[in-house]
């Protein structure tokens, strides 16, 4: 897919557009190191409620993954900020995630880590689980019920990729007891980290969320037990 490059003051950050089915998708790439072992994509929360790729949780997740030298792609779902198209209530957004995954495959030919926050997790997990190039999944603030929307994760029962779930024990859109049910039903391998005192947006607990990602990547993907 062709992309339009914009000049940026930092050469390590590329601003461009992905060519998606609904039109161009605004994107940012934080460059990795030449010998990176993975590439990653991080998806943002609900665009109708202000979610974009500049969200603080998305940014901290990017920093955690980029800290290992992985190239990390962020993008705006259709209809968000400069991305073309219209919001499609989670259906077309799955295609947006596939567009991002295909671009990463073409650009880097590396195994991919998927990460998503809230709506970005619910939508992205569905697109990433069946993709053979995606080797690991991170779900932050996994939503169960929000503003009348109910999310179903039955597909995780057959998704046998390493999975990390990180949420706050005060998450207003994912009560801990419901999250335990979701993670219990998901296929192994998996890890569920519940951060004490954190709400859905990890306010005041972003460093703890970031540390959970870093520990899991190091322990599960880079230095797995023999």
Percent of residues in helical segments? 25-40%
User: Could you please say which CATH topology applies here?
Assistant: Rossmann fold
Rg, rounded, reads: 16 Å
Structural class comes to alpha/beta
Number of helices: 5
From the spread of the alpha carbons, the general shape counts as globular
Describe the structure.
The protein is globular, with a radius of gyration of 16 Å. The strands form two sheets. It has an eight-stranded mixed beta sheet, with helices on both faces. Strands 7-8 form a two-stranded antiparallel sheet. Residues 1-11 have low confidence and may be disordered. 29% of the residues lie in helices and 24% in strands. The chain has helices at 56-66, 91-108, 119-128, 176-185, 206-222, and strands spanning 13-20, 23-30, 39-43, 72-75, 112-117, 134-140, 145-146, 149-150, 163-168, 190-195. The N and C termini lie far apart (39 Å). Helix 2 (91-108) crosses helix 3. The longest helix has 18 residues, at 91-108. It has 226 residues and is of the alpha/beta class. It has one domain (13-222): Rossmann fold, CATH 3.40.50.1820. A hairpin with a 2-residue loop joins strand 7 (145-146) and strand 8 (149-150). The protein is built from five helices and ten strands.
């Amino acid at each position: 897919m062709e992309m339009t490059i914009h000049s940026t003051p930092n050469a390590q950050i590329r601003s461009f557009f992905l060519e998606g089915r609904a039109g161009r998708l605004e994107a940012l790439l934080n460059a990795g190191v030449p010998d990176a072992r993975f590439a990653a994509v991080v998806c943002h929360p609900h665009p109708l409620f202000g979610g974009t790729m500049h969200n603080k949780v998305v940014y901290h997740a990017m920093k955690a993954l980029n800290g290992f030298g992985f190239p990390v792609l962020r993008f705006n779902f259709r209809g968000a900020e400069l991305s073309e198209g219209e919001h499609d209530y989670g259906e077309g957004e799955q295609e947006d995630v596939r567009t991002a995954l295909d671009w990463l495959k073409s650009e880097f030919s590396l195994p991919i880590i998927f990460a998503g926050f809230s709506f970005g997790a619910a939508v992205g997990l569905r697109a990433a689980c069946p993709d053979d190039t995606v080797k690991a999944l991170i779900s932050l603030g996994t939503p169960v019920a929000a503003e009348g929307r109910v999310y179903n994760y039955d597909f995780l029962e057959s998704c046998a990729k390493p999975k990390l779930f990180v949420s706050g024990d005060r998450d207003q859109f994912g009560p801990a007891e419901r999250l335990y049910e979701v993670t219990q039903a998901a296929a192994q391998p998996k890890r569920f980290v519940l951060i004490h005192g954190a709400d859905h947006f990890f306010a005041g607990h972003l460093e703890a969320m970031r540390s959970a990602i870093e520990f899991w990547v190091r322990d599960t993907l880079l230095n797995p037990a023999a």
